[in-house]
Design brief:
The complex is a heterodimer of chains A (about 425) and B (about 170). Chain A is built from 13 helices and twelve strands. By secondary structure, chain A is of the alpha/beta class. Chain B is an alpha+beta fold and about 170 residues long. A three-stranded antiparallel β-sheet of chain B has the order 1-2-3. In chain B, helix 3 packs across helix 6 and helix 5 packs across helix 6. Chain B is globular and about 50 Å long. Classes of the chains: A alpha/beta (about 425), B alpha+beta (about 170).
């Protein structure tokens, strides 16, 4: 015991001699998450043992196929869907693009064809397909839609979110529906503010509307939700959400950098037109020899969420709430919690806040932090310079406050001890910036 | 617990002493790198370390924290028929501040009614022990432990729960 104690003492004093600045606290889990050890294990095992081509009929290939099937089942289970409704993609961007491309193609195929429909006038003859979304979507939804709009392939309505609760209102979505509308796509949870959108309500109302529309020969409106940020942080069930498409992103729930797309009644109720053509994998909806190790990891990550999701959620919420308490205690009136909107539910792990002050731009504060690793908004927007986040501005946050925004997103292993360190770090960062006035 | 803890304190204290000469100039502005004497006092002379009979109907047990996250605290209270806390014990796995926070918590709950004990706030504990900012979460855990013990006690008083199958 004593010998071990002596060794530990040396190791500990060595560790404690290293400067405290080298201790980093990661609070940017909305940007990406590390892989859980079990996920890494599942992936390396697949790399070692299941490298065969899943389409091959000999044992090495069949083993890979089994792994893929199990992963598909796990993914289906965690979202409350059927395995045959899940296809694997390279990530959220591909899944989102796939949905948008598909509905446009479907519209053209069904409604733009000038076939004789028994004398009935086609109510959308000549019109472009119309898609409804909101103003705070991720780039992988916003940019494809803007691109289609520029190419005059589709028309798009970006419904503004409420400046009161940061959500998009179902009323406004329904009000934007036109005869040629074929898709409503609304993210389930926003990556910057953490606000959760009222997707179940939107789906319900669209479904009711569809009954009349289809009877009148109009295209049915499909509903898609990008669930990238929500899965792994709160319960996601496609039956409760009522959506036709759901995007799954592995690297947000401690899985690898691939994704999946859920399509309700894939191939039967809901059409899906592929972007890629090739070897027939994924029932031709997304061909390409399967990335077995990544798929194995995704399935394991989904399994962990199915088993422990509630515990993860409760833990993250506890740490995040403690963080907000400490921020308020430390900075008092100076702090503006951008992610707290009255009446809106939000992700349990996200805290977007601004410390008021002319020198306290979000990036400047983070640059002065020695411990905290975080971002001012979406990681893919890090090249925005000092311009405030368009998402925050859309939510009604004033420009000077939005400019100072910092987004902290905690994870499964975040602790209150880390929160204390981070708050201290922010305090010294602010003091340095203001001392340099 | 205290025996194992004392060795840790000595090691930690010696590490602090080793660290002091290496502090670069700007670090000296950071206050209180040493344990406050109140924390040291609770550490070397902990009050109320131990256990109560958790199967007893008058005992409420709160177990909070997780080893993975760093600290675990068990705090138990014994309540008399009039609803007054007459005894309290704690066992804590954690740093000096965590031990001091839970030790202080047992001191404070004694003599209070169950309702009064609910008003103990982490900020009071932190202020009393002069905890540095990076250790405020320890006082939060102590407040959670008190509340958990009170909740467990209240649950046991409910008429239908005859069995005391608590963790």
């Amino acid at each position: 015991m004593e010998a071990a104690g002596a060794r530990n003492r040396d190791a500990r004093s060595r560790a404690e001699k290293s400067p405290p600045e080298s201790r980093k606290v990661y609070m940017d889990y909305n940007a990406t998450t590390p892989l859980e050890p079990e996920v890494i294990e599942a992936m390396t095992e697949a790399m070692r043992e299941a490298w065969g081509n899943p389409s091959s009929s000999y044992p090495a290939g069949r083993k890979a196929k089994e792994i893929i099937n199990t992963a598909r089942e796990n993914l289906a289970k965690v979202i409350g869907g059927q395995p045959q409704d899940v296809i694997f993609t390279s990530g959220g961007t591909e899944s989102n693009n796939l949905v948008i491309q598909s509905v446009v193609k479907h519209f053209h195929k069904v409604h733009a064809a000038n076939g004789d429909t028994g004398g009935h006038p086609n109510p959308v003859d000549g019109a472009l397909p119309h898609i409804i979304t909101c103003t705070v979507e991720h780039d992988s939804i916003r940019l494809p839609l803007e691109h289609l709009r520029e190419e005059r392939v589709a028309e798009v309505t970006f419904v503004p979110v409420s400046k009161v609760n940061g959500q998009v209102e179902a009323e406004d979505i329904l009000a934007a529906v036109r005869p040629a509308t074929c898709l409503v796509t609304i993210m389930l949870a926003n990556n910057e503010t953490g606000v959760i959108m009222p997707v179940p309500e939107i789906s319900r109302r669209v479904r009711a509307l569809n009954q009349q529309r289809v009877a009148g020969g109009l295209p049915g409106v499909l509903v898609h939700t990008d669930a990238a940020q929500a899965l792994g942080k709160q319960r996601v069930d496609v039956r409760d959400l009522g959506v036709d498409f759901l995007t799954i992103v592995g690297h947000k729930f401690y899985g690898p950098r691939i994704g999946a797309l859920y399509v309700r009644g894939l191939g039967e109720h809901t059409p899906l037109y592929p972007m890629l053509f090739g070897g027939g994998q994924e029932r031709n909806f997304r061909p390409g020899t399967e990335n077995t190790p990544m798929i194995a990891g995704l399935g394991k990550a989904a399994e962990l969420v199915a088993e422990n999701g509630e515990a993860y959620e409760a833990h993250m919420r506890g740490v995040r709430d403690y963080l907000e308490e400490r921020l308020a205690a430390e900075f008092g009136e100076r702090i503006h919690l951008n992610s707290q909107f009255p009446g809106a539910e939000r992700l349990p792990n996200t805290c977007n806040f601004s410390i008021r002050g002319p020198q306290l731009q979000g990036r400047a504060v983070l640059a002065q932090c020695r411990t905290l690793l975080a971002s001012v908004g979406a990681a893919c927007h890090s090249d925005l310079g000092d311009r405030p986040s368009p998402v925050l501005l859309s939510c009604g946050v004033p420009v000077d406050v939005a400019r100072n925004a910092i987004r902290l997103s905690v994870g499964r292993s975040s602790t209150r001890a880390e929160v204390d360190l981070v708050v201290q770090d922010l305090k010294q960062a602010v003091a340095r910036l203001e001392g340099q006035a | 617990m205290a025996a194992a803890g004392a060795g840790r304190l000595r090691r930690a204290a010696s590490a602090v002493l080793l660290r002091a000469p290496r502090l670069p100039a700007r670090e000296l502005s950071a206050p209180a790198r040493l344990y406050h004497k109140k924390v040291v006092d609770h550490y070397e002379n902990p009050r109320n370390v131990g256990s109560l009979d958790k199967t007893s109907k008058n005992v409420g047990t709160g177990l909070v924290g997780a080893p993975a996250c760093g600290d675990v605290m068990k705090l138990q209270i014994q309540v008399d028929e009039k609803g007054k806390i007459v005894d309290a014990r704690f066992k804590t796995f954690g740093c000096g501040s965590a031990i001091a926070s839970s030790s202080l918590a047992t001191e404070w709950v004694k003599g209070k009614t169950v309702e009064e004990a609910l008003t103990i706030k982490n900020t009071d504990i932190a202020k009393e022990l002069c905890l540095p900012p990076v250790k405020l979460h320890c006082s939060m855990l102590a407040e959670d432990a008190i509340k958990a013990a009170l909740a467990d006690y209240k649950l046991k008083q409910e008429p239908k729960t005859g069995e005391a199958e608590k963790k």
